[in-house]
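Is this the right way to post structure tokens for a design question? Let me know if I should format differently. Anyway, here goes:
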């Protein structure tokens, strides 16, 4: 069947080449294929056809260079690729490049074949690029696996027959373009092919040196099943990597037959007996004759056989059954804490201590373990609490050699079987039996339970059943070992790759790899009982295969003949003891994480710390919608800040940035704190968790939208790794849906394809700030890309991490240039003046009494402290109110064009709000605070006061608030009425001043607040007269009068925009600082004259 399939694929491949040709243009191929570079000094970089400078910066043309080309379904992230890259860097020095064409290799094989020549042309061009830059082809080594082998053959040949020094190719694919086969032998000066399979790998031997591994290069003893390196084909690159440090010696065909019973057929076999010792792989002596060579492999890593079978003396320790029963201890734990050893002779003790009507649990450990192994006591305690009855621990700790232990299986298993029969004979019900086994112990419980009676005991849970040597022994018995059988899989090296239980739960990365794995005994295999023990109290939820792919980038393969129930259509369920065993049989999945309790609950481990404008903080979850709505107004802005690797809310820059956003944008600022994951010291592990972390941010955006918050008001900020989180989350939330996104030096390593097409569309407006190209990306893929310092590469402020070139980005971004450019000039009653900054509280407190009044004056466009009215007004405030008067001088911006000044509104306003907060924090009472603003400064006062706190400040007097650029929809206009407890607006013009009336008290001066008869020339036109009127009103009465008097005096008709109270019914009052603030809200009028002081009595 396999041979027929290969012939079929070969026919299809030729047809595809003849009829379809290339799918993309060459430019598209070059854009989609990446060459990742790794230098011997530890640097890594991305090289394309345009960045020769980068290539020459990291790589010396006089040194070696190596190119690795992966196969179908693979990428740079394939495990063997990373391992081989490291091996080549160590062995050859120079630069190692990985050609990643995964954008094509993830497609079906037929589609990949149709792209062969387009991909090959890119590799050929890369070789020519090296040549043009002075790299010597005699220093080149190309390595290809499977489909990648043919890419190497053809690319090297097209570069120049036998031009490069060497090509090593691992199990070239059987299905390929035949032209590459004809060119293989001439692809390099030396060409070695390593063969490990005859189904996916070719059966032809067309290279200079053909090394046939294992069973004549047709199959491997270690071969198991997909999807990992567990079929003969995929064993090849693993064996090649191991050959760097382990000898895969060449042997004769007679040796192969003696070891494997395979008879190898070859017409070009080389007689190695005349050549001396030889090894396969990178260390092969390439000066030996061309032809076929042979090397043996074995089932266990590192897969090489040092001695021939005829030289091995297998030592087994075989004893009689009685000896095994004596050496195996059944340690029994009761629910009341009593322990005893249960033997085959102390039935009375067993019956006395363990009630025959209650449950019996038996725990069986693995190789090199015992009752003193770390996980055992916890598991015993969990079983005792969860099931009651007695828990029996089978302790058989004697043997250190795993193979010897395997030979003893036939003697150990019957001891467990006898214990089960003893219990039944004493009256214990097998339906109440629960067996647990780990690794080798899993096979003991399978076989013993099955021999006790097919599906007789109640339940059996097996943790990562051992793989080595257990391929046939129990595979037909696991399914029937108990009524309910669950297997939990965590590895395929020490654990089995077979899925032979009723319920098979693949943990972590498809039951192959675990993020929590470290060195043995807590590798991928050894973590299984820790996960299982944790699952008693923590949910390891069953998820879909697609969920696993999103979270880990691992595409899990369904075991042959096993169904895959759709858990998305079932009630939530979990792995482990608490699994619902009524679920259909089949293959299930559950995610794991790096740290205890190991369950991958991303949402539970990520905190959204939310900061309001009034200083309140709370954690926003996915269930406390009421709190969110109560604390954050749905009509206001939402800002989300996402940190980078190793950072958290306690990182230095975060609080400052949150404060800046709060002041500048208002609304709520949400800090996404994923320190649970970012604290990982290995960046790559954090990268693998990206598909799990990113959806949590997407869900938060969707939650906010569902609650009524407007995405146009969303502002996302991300630094480094966090930049990619906001890119991808913003895009997945909706293309160009978020209002704005700022990204600070997006991380470069590992982030080359993941979001490359999404940054531009992650929000309506996207700005990227670049400060480095080592940890930061060298790509400029945002709408606006700002390169700081030396071309976005180096920064003068950089020091040691975390404040290197990369880490300085959020500090630059957070630094408030507005604060540096705005001066707060403080005046005391005795006219002592000083400048108040945000980092000098002492001077402010030394000169201004927090118990007294304070006044803030904010000028307008084109003005400063030197304008005609400020100093006189300052004097008036000092005389009337005492305390300190603070003049906010933002001339650095007000001297600019009006449109430019308006663009700076938020930044300037944020500084004013921060000054109010500084005063508040120092003990100045907002009830003693008065703010005056003129024109543009009126709006600064409105919004600055509102963001400080709605109606928190005692009073704001605004003089002719600017009209241009401040329509009714402007945020400052909407907030004006609530910007202070008392808000008075004095209106003098309708050209530069607003025609709207939105304050609590609106005083229309002169001709209905439209023009003034006292107007002369700038700056004393109708608009500019307002602060003069206000200043004069400290000592001259601008009485409020009936509207009729205005209309009669000036022969005009005034149209009210709001209610106009009848002033004849009120106590006499006047415009300005002496206004009676208790009068009703509404629109009022005051007459003005032609000459100073401009009031008319």
């Amino acid at each position: 069947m396999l041979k027929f399939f290969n012939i079929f694929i070969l026919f299809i491949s030729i047809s595809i080449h003849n009829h379809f040709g290339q799918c993309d243009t060459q430019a598209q191929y070059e854009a989609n294929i990446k060459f990742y570079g790794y230098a011997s000094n530890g640097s890594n970089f991305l090289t394309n056809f345009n960045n020769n400078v980068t290539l020459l910066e990291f790589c010396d043309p006089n040194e070696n260079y190596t190119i690795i080309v992966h196969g179908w379904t693979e990428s740079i992230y394939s495990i063997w690729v990373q391992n081989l890259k490291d091996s080549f860097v160590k062995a050859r020095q120079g630069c190692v490049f990985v050609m990643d064409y995964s954008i094509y290799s993830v497609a079906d094989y037929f589609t990949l074949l149709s792209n062969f020549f387009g991909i090959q042309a890119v590799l050929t061009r890369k070789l020519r690029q090296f040549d043009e830059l002075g790299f010597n082809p005699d220093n080149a080594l190309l390595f290809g696996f499977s489909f990648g082998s043919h890419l190497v053959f053809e690319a090297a040949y097209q570069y120049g027959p036998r031009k490069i020094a060497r090509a090593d190719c691992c199990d070239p694919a059987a299905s390929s373009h035949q032209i590459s086969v004809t060119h293989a032998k001439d692809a390099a000066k030396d060409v070695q092919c390593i063969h490990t399979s005859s189904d996916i790998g070719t059966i032809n031997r067309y290279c200079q040196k053909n090394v046939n591994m294992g069973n004549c290069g047709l199959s491997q003893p270690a071969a198991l099943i997909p999807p990992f390196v567990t079929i003969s084909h995929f064993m090849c690159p693993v064996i090649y990597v191991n050959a760097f440090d382990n000898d895969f010696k060449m042997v004769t065909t007679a040796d192969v037959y003696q070891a494997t019973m395979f008879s190898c057929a070859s017409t070009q076999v080389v007689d190695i007996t005349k050549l001396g010792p030889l090894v396969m792989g990178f260390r092969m002596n390439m000066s030996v004759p061309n032809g076929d060579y042979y090397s043996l492999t074995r089932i266990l890593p590192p897969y090489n056989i040092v001695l021939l079978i005829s030289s091995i003396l297998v030592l087994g320790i075989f004893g009689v059954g009685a000896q095994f029963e004596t050496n195996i201890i059944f340690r029994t734990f009761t629910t009341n804490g009593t322990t005893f050893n249960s033997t085959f002779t102390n039935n009375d003790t067993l019956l006395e201590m363990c009630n025959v009507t209650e449950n019996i649990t038996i725990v069986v450990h693995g190789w090199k373990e015992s009752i003193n192994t770390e996980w055992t006591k916890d598991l015993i305690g969990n079983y005792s609490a969860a099931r009651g009855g007695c828990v029996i621990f089978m302790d058989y700790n004697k043997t250190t050699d795993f193979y010897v232990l395997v030979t003893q299986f036939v003697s150990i298993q019957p001891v467990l079987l006898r214990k089960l029969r003893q219990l039944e004979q004493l009256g214990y019900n097998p339906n109440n039996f629960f067996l647990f086994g780990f690794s080798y112990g899993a096979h003991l419980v399978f076989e013993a339970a099955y021999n006790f009676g097919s599906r007789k005991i109640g339940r059996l849970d097996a943790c990562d059943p051992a793989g080595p040597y257990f391929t046939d022994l129990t595979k037909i018995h696991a399914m029937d070992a108990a009524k309910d059988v669950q297997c939990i899989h965590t590895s395929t090296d020490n654990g089995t790759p077979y899925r032979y239980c009723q319920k098979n739960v693949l943990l972590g990365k498809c039951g192959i790899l675990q993020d929590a794995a470290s060195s043995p005994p807590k590798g991928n295999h050894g973590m299984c009982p820790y996960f299982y023990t944790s699952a008693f109290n923590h949910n390891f939820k069953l998820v879909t295969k697609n969920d696993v792919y999103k979270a880990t980038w691992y595409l899990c393969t369904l075991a042959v003949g096993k169904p895959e129930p759709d858990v998305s259509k079932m009630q939530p369920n979990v792995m482990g003891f608490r699994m619902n065993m009524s679920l259909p049989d089949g293959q299930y999945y559950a995610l794991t994480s790096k740290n205890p309790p190991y369950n991958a609950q991303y949402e539970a481990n990520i905190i959204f710390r939310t900061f309001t404008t009034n200083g309140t903080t709370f954690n926003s979850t996915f269930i406390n919608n009421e709190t969110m709505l109560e604390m954050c107004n749905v009509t206001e802005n939402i800002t989300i800040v996402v940190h980078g690797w190793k950072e958290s809310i306690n990182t230095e820059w975060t609080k400052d940035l949150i404060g800046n956003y709060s002041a500048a944008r208002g609304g709520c600022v949400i800090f996404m704190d994923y320190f649970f994951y970012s604290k990982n010291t290995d960046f790559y592990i954090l990268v693998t968790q990206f598909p799990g972390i990113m959806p949590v941010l997407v869900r938060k955006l969707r939650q906010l939208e569902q609650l009524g918050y407007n995405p146009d008001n969303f502002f996302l900020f991300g630094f480094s790794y966090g930049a990619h989180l906001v890119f991808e989350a913003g895009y997945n939330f909706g293309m160009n849906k978020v209002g704005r996104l700022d990204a600070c030096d997006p991380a470069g390593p590992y982030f080359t394809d993941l979001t490359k097409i999404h940054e531009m569309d992650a929000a309506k407006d996207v700005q990227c700030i670049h400060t480095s190209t080592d940890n930061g990306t060298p790509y400029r893929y945002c709408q606006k890309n700002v390169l700081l310092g030396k071309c976005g590469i180096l920064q003068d402020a950089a020091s040691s991490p975390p404040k290197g070139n990369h880490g300085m980005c959020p500090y630059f971004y957070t630094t408030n240039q507005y604060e540096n450019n705005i001066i707060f000039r403080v005046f005391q009653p005795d006219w002592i003046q000083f400048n108040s900054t945000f980092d000098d509280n002492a001077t402010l407190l030394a000169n201004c009494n927090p118990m007294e009044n304070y006044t803030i004056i904010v000028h307008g466009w084109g003005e400063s402290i030197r304008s005609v009215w400020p100093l006189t007004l300052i004097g008036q405030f000092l005389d009337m109110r005492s305390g300190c008067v603070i003049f906010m001088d933002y001339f650095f911006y007000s001297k600019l064009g009006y449109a430019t000044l308006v663009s700076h509104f938020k930044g300037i306003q944020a500084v004013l709000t921060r000054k109010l907060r500084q005063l508040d924090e120092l003990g100045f009472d907002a009830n003693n605070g008065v703010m005056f603003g003129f024109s543009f400064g009126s709006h600064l006062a409105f919004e600055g006061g509102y963001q400080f706190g709605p109606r928190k400040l005692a009073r704001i007097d605004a003089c002719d608030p600017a009209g241009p650029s401040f329509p009714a929809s402007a945020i400052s206009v909407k907030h004006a009425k609530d910007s202070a407890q008392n808000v008075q607006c004095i209106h003098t013009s309708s050209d530069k001043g607003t025609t709207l009336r939105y304050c609590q008290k609106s005083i229309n001066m002169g001709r209905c607040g439209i023009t003034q008869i006292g107007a002369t020339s700038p700056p004393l036109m109708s608009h500019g007269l307002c602060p003069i009127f206000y200043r004069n009103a400290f000592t001259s009465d601008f009485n409020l009068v009936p509207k009729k008097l205005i209309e009669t005096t000036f022969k005009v008709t005034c149209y009210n925009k709001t209610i106009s109270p009848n002033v004849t019914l009120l106590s006499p009052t006047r415009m300005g600082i002496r206004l009676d603030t208790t009068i009703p809200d509404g629109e009022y009028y005051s007459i003005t004259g032609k000459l100073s002081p401009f009031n008319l009595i």
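Format looks fine. Someone answered above. Worth noting: The radius of gyration is 39 Å. The chain has four domains: 26-295, 329-590, 602-813, 822-1086.
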